[in-house]
Amino acid sequence: MTSELPLLETPANGIPDVVDTPEDLSTSIASLAAAEGPIAVDAERASGIRYGQRAFLVQLRREGAGTFLLDSETLGDLSDLNPALGSDEWVIHSVTQDLPCLQERGMRPAALFDTELAARLLGWEKFGLAAVAERTLGVRLAKEHSAADWSTRPLPKEWLNYAALDVEVLLPIRDILHQQLLDSDRWEFAQQEFAHLLDFTPKHFDEPWRRTHGLSKIRSRRDIARVRELWQARDSMAREADLAPTKILRDRELIALAQSGVKSSDDILAQWRRLSRAEAARFFRAYRKASRLGVEELPGRSERGRSKRSEFNPAELKERVAALKAAMSELSEELTIPHDVLLQPAIVKSLAAESSVDVDGYLAEAGARPWQIELSAPVLKKTLAGLPQA
């Protein structure tokens, strides 16, 4: 049982001092450069508390050099680390979560090993760092500080203890996962995925306000315009105050305001008393701006260029998507590889809209890796051959 596993309480060499001056950073870089081998890397953010997803603490560990806790908010640019780390592999748990905030600080890996993705390729149902540490190292990790406000200064000692432990376990976990990938003949799959992750960037949305939760239920274009203007006002206020936008108004409150029919900023204050008078005034100006737009200026009900026209009618397309998804789900179970790792669902869905297509070429152009094409293409071709053509 998990509760019977020993709890990893303190780092082997104690909690290192926080590196927060240029001089200490230079010393740390020299120590890291003098060592060699993979580098465990982690980052702590203040998601849901501060604006954006920037790293407030960056943790590094390399055998022969030790563990380093970098106050990235104070230090700012960390690009001088790159030459010191050279071409060696960065070991990160969930690259898509941490790489963007590391890149924002100037850090660029030459090679990657994602311990979360490795666990998923092995078919593990639990792949959080704590679960992976339990399964590979037989120890429990305390995770109570994962959602802490890492913008806090000074950082509490118990938080630093937690941060140091996270990178201390990554290197031995990496070695065990690497061996299991070799034993299961999935190391080639992992190598292709890790190489692909080097170019990872978060998805860009031309109209990010359309991600507002609850927007899909609004049918009035005028109310959609109000959501857009209110979202943009909230985003500006959040950026200026360095707060997560939901700290000002949650999405459901933004939707409610867009549909409220308010006549003044006082009406807004009466409903949302935690707002300042200045914030209420800015929200009302945004609301009023949307209310005065001409019909031709109103946004559409769906995102521009969201999907290209298909030769199949909606009922046919729905049937094709369902058939391809079912085939991929069956293959996923057979291989014990999660369906979204085996092939991105968005690619499967877009393929369903195509008629008389070269499946291998289509998958490659959509960004599928060779191992994904090799395993998925035969199943997709067979399924498509059994479906009515346009």
From TrEMBL:
A molecular function (GO) term = ribonuclease D activity
- Keyword Hydrolase on this protein? yes
Q: Which residues form the 3'-5' exonuclease domain?
A: 16-182
Q: Which UniProt keywords apply?
A: Hydrolase
Q: Does the keyword Hydrolase apply?
A: yes
Among the Pfam families in the record, one is: DNA_pol_A_exo1
Q: Identify the Gene3D superfamilies for this entry.
A: HRDC domain (1.10.150.80), Ribonuclease H-like superfamily/Ribonuclease H (3.30.420.10)
The Enzyme Commission number assigned here is 3.1.13.5
Concerning SUPFAM superfamilies, the annotation shows:
HRDC-like, Ribonuclease H-like
GO:BP terms for this protein?
nucleobase-containing compound metabolic process
| Protein name (Swiss-Prot/TrEMBL) | Ribonuclease D
Q: State the species of origin.
A: Brevibacterium iodinum ATCC 49514
